[in-house]
């Protein structure tokens, strides 16, 4: 059976009943979106502050490969397994972006017997959060252009504005566009771009805001342009934050759904980890900590991107601290890191696994030595994995002083991840470790970027042309020096070259562009050729998605 067939064969519990019986949430604290989806009341969540926090489990992975590592699937399977062994667990995930759903990646609700449901709803429009983010973002763009059109009292240099418009689909034709051609003699025309909604600063703000008041304050702080004499222009200068916050009134509330096995799942927010900070919302994570004995969450892509930003941006800003990290790997992915072509990954090749282990070792080093987290390696088992190759990975991981267990949640659901759940419980039992960051607040933006590049990516140094260096200097003069850095780069390598597999060292990380996200409270360092508007592949996933006369969707994966 396909993933969507498995999901559609299950009858989820009414979400109000599940919330009441599994979490003690009264129905008046929910806003129902049909029978199987609901939003949580922020007032109810604020009332949980006096409860003690549960254990926070951060799931991350080795570097992504075409084979897939199964990070989201592992979060779901681990949550189900923790409940099976008597530990109350709540999972917290990001919402899928429609761009990948219709593009190359497919959905992000897990797979096999480890899924969140309703799968098709979550992967498509869900509760409308992405649409609200897109509308708030584009409203600000429209207000900016409207202000210039009606006299430009602020003296905005519209050609220096770096506030693009956004779209929730992959569309490479919109990466570079010209707008404003309807003005007199094209006076207000300029080059700009579209980003995907997941790359919007407002998506990051939604996921980092602690309350509606914090959301509005962050929206007010967005820098949308500069004046002719170089001063920053914020959303507050356009009096935009109130209407934007109104559009996001409901989007800020975490969404509650469930897994195939009835584990409560908070699915909220969806910033990409290669071009944003790659974590679900602070509100959802905090809710999971208050509602569960274990809160299981993930950070996008590998530990070098997702986990680094989870800790250096999300944990730093929200005061969160993981108790244990789970590093997901697979035999197939390690072969790929060892140089095997994607089409050959099913063939036996222990030497390739040996070569590829350097990637796993580097990710373990990041989690344990840079950030100080206890770790468990989850070897996600795929059909066809050979016992001797599996044992090779487990033995090598064990020799590094880390607990490594196989996980079969894709085929067996929570029952296939009970050993992983027990290993996570054991690893979390010592006192919560003192969390370390890759850099200090007081370092310069340049030194913060260098610290991530050298300690996390294994780079020799960073480089940038004079224009980028001046951009950084300007931001520091404007008072943004203490912000964290959010490095946007390819997820497929520790370098900015996606073809460089394994664990390269000694490379230079080129900073191509700098973007201020003052409302999100970080500075984006764009490296290599990473794009903030993806394109569709030669055979998009959209071409196999369909709906029948009864409204039953097929083809989602």
Total strand segments? 24
Helix content: 25-40%
Task: Give the low-pLDDT segments.
Answer: none
The structure class reads alpha/beta
> How large is the radius of gyration?
23 Å
- The general outline is globular
Overview of the molecule:
Helix content is 35%, strand content 18%. It has 557 residues and is of the alpha/beta class. The chain has 3 domains: 3-127 and 251-428, P-loop containing nucleotide triphosphate hydrolases (Rossmann fold, 3-Layer(aba) Sandwich); 129-241, Domain 2, N(10)-formyltetrahydrofolate synthetase; 445-527, Formyltetrahydrofolate synthetase, domain 3 (Roll). Strands 1, 2, 3, 4, 5, 6, 13, 14, 15, 16, 17 and 18 form a 12-stranded mixed sheet that branches. The protein has a 4-stranded mixed sheet with strand order 19-21-22-20. The protein has a two-stranded parallel sheet with strand order 7-10. Helix 7 (129-149) runs antiparallel to helix 10, helix 9 (212-221) crosses helix 10 and helix 13 packs across helix 14 (350-370). The protein is globular and about 70 Å long. The mean pLDDT is 95.
Give a topology summary.
Elements lengths: L2 H6 L6 H9 L6 E3 L5 E3 L1 H5 L8 E7 L9 H14 L4 E5 L4 H5 L7 E2 L2 E4 L1 H5 L5 H21 L15 E3 L9 E3 L10 E3 L1 E3 L4 H8 L3 H10 L1 E4 L5 E3 L6 H7 L7 E5 L4 E4 L14 H10 L2 E5 L4 H16 L5 E6 L1 H7 L12 H21 L4 E6 L6 H13 L3 E5 L1 H4 L5 H11 L16 H11 L5 E3 L2 H12 L7 E4 L19 E10 L4 E6 L18 E2 L5 E2 L3
Entry keywords:
557 residues; alpha/beta; Rossmann fold; Domain 2, N(10)-formyltetrahydrofolate synthetase; Formyltetrahydrofolate synthetase, domain 3; 3 domains; twelve-stranded mixed β-sheet; four-stranded mixed β-sheet; 19 helices; 24 strands; globular
């Amino acid at each position: 059976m396909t993933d969507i067939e498995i999901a559609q064969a299950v009858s989820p519990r009414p979400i109000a009943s599940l919330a009441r019986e599994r979490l003690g949430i009264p129905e008046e604290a929910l806003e129902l979106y049909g029978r199987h989806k609901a939003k949580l009341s922020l007032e109810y969540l604020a009332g949980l502050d006096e409860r003690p926090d549960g254990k926070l489990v951060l799931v991350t992975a080795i570097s992504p490969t075409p084979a897939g590592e199964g990070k989201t699937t592992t979060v779901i399977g681990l949550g189900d397994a923790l409940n099976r062994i008597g530990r109350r667990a709540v999972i917290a995930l990001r919402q899928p972006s429609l761009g990948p759903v219709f593009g190359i990646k497919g959905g992000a609700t897990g797979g096999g017997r480890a899924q969140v449901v309703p799968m098709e709803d979550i992967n498509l429009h869900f509760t409308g959060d992405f649409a609200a983010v897109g509308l708030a973002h584009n409203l600000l763009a429209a207000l900016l252009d409207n202000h210039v059109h009606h006299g430009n009292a602020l003296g905005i240099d519209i050609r220096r504005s770096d506030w693009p418009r956004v779209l929730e689909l992959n569309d490479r034709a919109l990466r570079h566009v010209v707008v404003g051609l309807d003005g007199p003699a094209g006076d207000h025309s300029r080059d700009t771009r579209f980003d995907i909604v997941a790359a919007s600063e407002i998506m990051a703000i939604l996921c980092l805001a602690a309350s509606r008041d914090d959301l509005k304050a962050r929206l007010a702080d967005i820098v949308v342009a500069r004046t002719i004499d170089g001063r920053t222009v914020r959303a507050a200068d356009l009096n935009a934050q109130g209407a934007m916050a109104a559009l996001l009134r409901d989007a800020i509330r975490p969404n509650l759904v469930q897994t195939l096995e009835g584990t409560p799942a908070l699915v909220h927010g969806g910033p990409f980890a290669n071009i944003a900070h790659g974590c679900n919302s602070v509100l959802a994570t905090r809710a999971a900590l208050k509602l569960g004995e274990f809160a299981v969450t993930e950070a996008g892509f590998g530990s070098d991107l997702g986990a680094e930003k989870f800790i250096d941006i999300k944990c730093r800003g929200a005061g969160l601290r993981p108790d244990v990290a789970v590093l997901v790997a697979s035999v197939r992915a390690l072969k790929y890191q060892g140089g095997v072509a994607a089409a050959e990954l099913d063939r036996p090749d222990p030497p390739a696994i040996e070569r590829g282990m350097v990637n796993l070792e580097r990710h373990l080093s990041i989690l344990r030595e840079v950030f100080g987290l206890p770790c468990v390696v989850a070897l996600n088992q795929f059909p066809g994995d050979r016992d001797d190759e599996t044992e090779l990975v487990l033995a090598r991981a064990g020799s590094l002083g880390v607990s490594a267990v196989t996980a079969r949640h894709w085929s067996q659901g929570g029952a296939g991840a009970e050993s992983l759940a027990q290993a996570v419980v054991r690893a979390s039992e010592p006192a919560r470790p003192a969390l370390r960051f890759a850099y200090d607040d007081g370092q310069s933006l340049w030194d913060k970027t260098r610290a991530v590049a050298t300690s996390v990516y294994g780079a020799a140094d960073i480089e940038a042309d004079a224009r980028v260096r001046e951009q950084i200097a300007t931001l520091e003069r404007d008072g943004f020096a203490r912000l964290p850095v959010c490095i946007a780069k390819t997820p497929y390598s520790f370098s900015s070259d996606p073809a460089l597999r394994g664990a390269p060292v000694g490379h230079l990380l080129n900073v191509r562009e700098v973007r201020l996200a003052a409302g999100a409270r970080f500075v984006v360092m764009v490296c290599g050729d990473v794009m903030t508007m993806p394109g569709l592949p030669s055979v998009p996933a959209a071409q196999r998605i369909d709906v029948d006369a009864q409204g039953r969707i097929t083809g989602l994966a």
